[in-house]
Amino acid sequence: MVSVMGAEKNISKVEYVLLPFNETHLSISPRTFTVEPVACAADGRIVKDVVVLPSTVSATVFKASVKSVPLELSVSKGSRDDITVTYPETVKIKGTQGVLSSISSIKADSIDVSGFDKSGYVTINCQLPAGAELANDSAFIKVKVKVK
């Protein structure tokens, strides 16, 4: 586990902590590296003026493949026609070539927005098969709910 410390205005920008690896050193066999974690905003930019502790982390990693697949999401709006919902049609997943070859789409947990009284966002959970993960680009999938 890591901790991020700093001024509230900077901490509020942090969405996740990334362990950066030099891809040229990765292989399909797991290897252990020691890296310096970095705090990132939702758009992937590094958040400056924060401290991530511990300052180094050991992690065992391997080179994975990435694949874009359709996202299947069931949204319940009840009888409300004043709500519009938008979300990505596809997501990026990562894993070994063998795991990814059998995946044609990813299902997300269904959501019910019928009780929304104002516009906002909902983070959804995806149902991923063993050996597959959401790629960094799709790590936090948000559904935009607009109430007219």
Write a brief caption for the model.
This protein is mainly beta.
Blueprint (SSEs and pairs):
Elements (H helix, E strand, L loop, with lengths): L2 E4 L1 H4 L4 E3 L12 E5 L2 E3 L9 E4 L3 E5 L3 E8 L2 E2 L6 E4 L3 E6 L1 H4 L5 E3 L2 E2 L7 E4 L2 E2 L5 E2 L7 E6 L1
Parallel strand pairs: 7-11, 8-12
Antiparallel strand pairs: 1-5, 2-4, 3-6, 7-10, 9-16, 10-15, 11-14, 13-16
Give a verbal description of the structure.
It is a single chain. The chain has 148 residues and is mainly beta. The protein folds into 2 domains: 1-63, no CATH class; 64-148, YbbR-like domain (RNA Polymerase Alpha Subunit, Chain A, domain 2). 5% of the residues lie in helices and 43% in strands. It contains 2 helices and 16 strands. It has helices spanning 8-11, 97-100, and strands at 3-6, 16-18, 31-35, 38-40, 50-53, 57-61, 65-72, 75-76, 83-86, 90-95, 106-108, 111-112, 120-123, 126-127, 133-134, 142-147. The strands form 6 sheets. Strands 14-11-7-10-15 form a 5-stranded mixed sheet. Strands 9-16-13 form a 3-stranded antiparallel sheet, with no helix packed on it. The chain has a two-stranded antiparallel ribbon with strand order 1-5. The longest helix has 4 residues, at 8-11. The chain is flat and about 55 Å long. The mean pLDDT is 92.
What's the CATH superfamily of the largest domain, by name? YbbR-like domain
CATH class of the largest domain: Mainly Beta
Whole-number tally of structural domains: 2
CATH architecture of the largest domain: Beta Complex
Helix content: under 10%
Low-confidence stretches: none
Estimated share of beta-strand residues? 35-45%
Rounded radius of gyration (Å):
18 Å
N- to C-terminal separation?
A: 41 Å
Structural class: mainly beta
- Count of helices? 2
Sequence of strands across the biggest β-sheet = 14-11-7-10-15
- Give the topology string: H per helix, E per strand: EHEEEEEEEEEHEEEEEE
